Amino acid sequence: MPQQSNDSFEDIAQVIRKHLDDRGWLNNPSRGLAISIALEANELLEHYQWKEEPVGDKQAIAAELADILIYAFQFADANDIDIAAAIRHKLELSAKKYPLSEFNKGISAEERQANWRKRKIRMIKTGEEEQSA
User: Which parts of the chain sit beneath pLDDT 70?
Assistant: First the structure.
């Protein structure tokens, strides 16, 4: 895995806020930010549209990812969301939904996929909400 910088979420958020504030871009509506996240994600997808290897170099892909993350930080600010807390909470929910007993490195990909299908079918039948993971 690549080594990440030592910048905290708050450090990066402050850099993003300053950049946006300097340009008068701090008050974008949540709807517009959500749309922008989706649009930027699609731009990242374009790099992989026709083959497994990306069209473009690592720098181009990193730029698309940065666009997504910048809008995500801005969306979090606009909606008073603590990103680190939200990620931790989501991983806790995911761990409950996908227990290691059924989803771990020691289980074949086919078995993990079968386990996922069983859970998805049960969720549809019982009307469980997607928010559980």
Answer: 129-133
